[in-house]
Amino acid sequence: MGRPNNGTARRKSTTHYQTFPTPPPKSKGQPPSDTSRNSSHDGPHHARTGSKGSNHEESPLPIRQLFVLAIISLSEQTALNSIGPYLPQMVATFEGVRPGQVGLYVGLVASSFALAQFATNFFWGWLSDRIGRKPVVLTGTLLTAACFVAFGFCETLWQAIIVQVLMGLVNGNQGVVSTCLGEITDRSNQSRAFTYLPVIYGLGGITGPVVGGLLVSKNAHFSKKDPYPYIKPNLLSAAVLIVDLIITMIFLEESLEEARDLPPLGKRVGNLFSWVWQFASSSRPSYLRIPSINHKRPLHIDGDATNEEEDEEDSDSDSASQTSIPEMIPHHTTDLTHSQIFNRDTLLLMCTYLIFQLSNVSYGSLYLIFGQAAPPTGRSLSPKEIGFSLAFASAATIVFQLGFFGRLREKLGNRLTYKSCMAAMALAFILTPWVGYKDSKNGDGGISSGKVWLWIELGFVLLLKSVAAVGCLTSFLLLITNSAPNHSVLGTLNGLAQTLSAAGRAVGPFFAGGLFSLGTHVEPKGEAVAFGVFGGVAFVGFLMTFGIRGANLESEGWDEEEGSEGDEEEDDDEEEDHAR
């Protein structure tokens, strides 16, 4: 019998069922694939790569759970994106804010949310590994809804900043949703499932601004007649999140396998209050009492079955009170070392994901400044034209994800797709400063001039950047899911990834704006300063992707015929040396 498949075996959750020869209970949302079931009988290379010679079948997608996760993501993205359209106007109407300070304080409010997420995203991921995914999602949704209500009642700048900080502290659902998605799918169907997540984010980027833009009037300001002019979009966002909370509470199934054997969430909350009551009122709570030992009880030599059953019932009753505390959290039977969790591939994935998020959010900030700025550093686009171009980018994102990404990933694999999209991101930065101008007299080194050429070139660059962004995000989610030693640490890894994402979103706009302002004093092509710097950063991320070589990072059914055997054998040797 060949050596067990490390790539597939590492993905299995480490529950107590695996210590027995009998198969574990089947998950409601995660049917095992053929390769996973036969991994112990196949050779290492056969199981790891899912070659064409294997008779694997794609597991059916858990449609119901995917739909619930889609509702969670869409509701949250709609709520969070609803703030953007009215935030500058809201900040401008705060007392003490001068017109020249609006941009600064808008950035401060937005950065406070990202910095707060940076502080707690890892914690929410870690907590979901301890108590389960569903309690964390419910908690985050409820607290985020409360923060939206509070944000609608803000009357001063510092109130808005404090509420945004609180909203960032309690909002860690994005990483947990990605974790759930990785747990309810396997390597045979994960590509199809992860393809739709950026689509949901794109839809949220459309529905959110609609909510925020339609429910706030152009002349909204604080007055006695209308003391809270920004309450309507926030109340609607909170209502959307409450509906999301109810749907999640009823229909979302716990995806952490170790937490499935725990009592229902409501009973666990009731047990918690019971333990607190016992601790406060009893001199020695029941969960601290010394357990009774069965073999010290009198033996019934006559074999009276009734007495034996009574003894067992008493023992069960005692043990129930003594083990009620562990029922609050799942048991993890395998302790993983730091090096097993944060191996070479995982560390490189985290570093490149930080670079990707930093580059992605910086490009968004640079494009807004670059578009509206006057020539020669800008292209003098109107707000309507900028909005049209961004809508085009969002539509292109959805079309690419639904129509082309799956086929592209099947051709290239997860690693090469991630690498190619990082390269495309760097290329988008390099090309953007060379987009032409509306008027030929403003030309300053552009490739061409005139409105037609401007929109052709701008459309190409935005399409390239959008494809790169969604490709990087989807590929990363697949890679980080497959890199996890088992599902018990997947929440921690996704939490760390979202922490790094928040760090990039917090510092990116600040440095992007500063570099562009610096570039206005440079002639010619001063706009190339900021785009060139971040293009170089993205290129460094592209170079780092060459170090991500683990063959177990690919999805099932992908055939890697050339250039992989050496890497796989090298990885196998490293795992054997580590095991010794």
From TrEMBL:
One of its GO terms (molecular function) is transmembrane transporter activity. The keyword Membrane applies. Pfam families: MFS_1. Residues 305-317, 556-580 have a biased composition (Acidic residues). CDD domains: MFS_SLC46_TetA_like. InterPro entries: MFS, MFS_dom, MFS_trans_sf, Tet-R_TetA/multi-R_MdtG-like. Residues 1-58, 299-329, 554-580 are annotated as: Disordered. GO terms for cellular component: membrane. Keywords: Membrane, Transmembrane, Transmembrane helix, Transport. Residues 65-553 form the Major facilitator superfamily (MFS) profile domain. It is a multi-pass membrane protein. It is found in: Membrane. The chain crosses the membrane at residues 104-124, 136-153, 193-215, 235-252, 347-370, 386-404, 416-435, 455-481, 528-548. The keyword Phosphoprotein does not apply. PANTHER family: MAJOR FACILITATOR SUPERFAMILY DOMAIN-CONTAINING PROTEIN 10, TRANSPORTER, PUTATIVE (AFU_ORTHOLOGUE AFUA_6G03860)-RELATED. This is Major facilitator superfamily (MFS) profile domain-containing protein.
